[in-house]
Each structure stands twice: as C-alpha cells, then as structure tokens.
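Q: I have 148 residues here and want to know how they pack in 3D. Can you give me a structure?
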Amino acid sequence: MVLIIGGGVFGAMLLSGRRELLKRRRALSVGAFAEGTVASIVTDYLGAAPEREGRPADPGTPIQRLMISFTDAAGTPVIFKERLKPAAGVARGAYFSVHYDPADPKGTATVASKQVLDAKLAESARYCLVSGAAVVLGVLIVAGVIPV
C-alpha cells in the first residue's frame, strides 16, 4: 500500500516539475529573448521541515538562487528566480540572455541552455518511470498477483 501511495504522490510531483521544464524548453524553441541582469542572490532551503511530534525542525540544505530581472517585449519589468542555473561564481549585476514565452514571461523565463533543460527532462522521465513502476508493483502485491 505504501508503494502505491508513495509512488503515486512522487509521480504526481515529478509530472508537475516536468511540466515546468517543458514550458521553459518551449520558451527556448519558440519564445523571445532579452538581456537580463542578476538583481540579487537569495538562499532557498531544500528539504526544510517544520518541527513536528517532538522532532526538531530541519533547516534543510541551503542553496543559492539567482533573482534575474529583465524587461519583456511589451516593456513590462519581470523578476524571476532561476532554478536551473547555479549561483556559484555569479555576481550581482552579471548579464544573462533570458529566454521566455511572451504569453507567460515570469512563468517560463530561464537562462539555462537547451542542453541543461534536455538533461533535466531526461532525468525527470527516468524518475517518472521508476515511480510508475512502484505504483504498478504495489497494485500487483495488493491484488495478490505477486505473493509476499
């Protein structure tokens, strides 16, 4: 049962992330581009968890993210958090070529290259297959097809 629920939840999260990657990949293919500037560098915490049931809070792993600003083709200023390009070695004020879909500049903007996006898409496809296999395995065990 744990395999079914865990695999299903994990798969749903992966599909959501994959959809975001596909939007950014499309922006590289058919979107517009502008020159962007690193407005700031912020810290996110991966895996952070609040205090629960007597367990101490887990602050997570700190990771630096770039906040990049640019002006889209309509003249609207846009600031977005780049999640695919590491902030290591990048200073505030650095310039990047920003690719985006004019229909959703903030939601699709990226400074990542086509190769980076393709690698992330391939990785997410592998994880989706593994989570799908976990769900199928769980269903087969619960149905009694695979004896435990």
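Q: Anything worth noting?
A: The beta strands are 32-46, 61-71, 77-82, 95-100. Residues 2-142 form one domain.
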